[in-house]
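#lab-general

N.A. 3:47 PM
ok so I finally got the sequence cleaned up, no stray characters, all 138 residues accounted for. can someone with queue access submit it? mine expired

B.Y. 3:52 PM
send it over

N.A. 3:53 PM
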Amino acid sequence: MNRFLSTLLSLFALLGSTMAFVPPSRTAMPATTTALPTTSAIHFPPALQRQRKSMAPVQTMSLFGLGAPELAIILIAAAFLLGPSKLAELGKDAGKIAGELKEVPKEFQKGLSEGEAEAAAMRSAAAPAEILEKKEDK
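B.Y. 4:20 PM
back already:
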């Protein structure tokens, strides 16, 4: 059990920055003291006005505000919970789904060409009827 915990801790250290789990420091934020409230102070409480400066030049949060390290930890925990047999089964299912998704554009193009052919046939069938109507009107 001790070896498992040490492995898990080293995995956490390798996969993600520990700064992602530390709350923002209040001393690092500039203190703003104004005599008159600004327009943003009226609408938002002071705790929401302060924003933490990001360490990275670009913030790269993706799925539900989770970054790559958090998603990797979730996936590893899911792999431990499911086990190898269930993971193999899920991999096969994912492969089948990917194969079916490759067929979607082909089926779409096929349906589109069939629709165009039907529209052309309807136009060609409607054209002689219009000619007959014009002749009858004269």
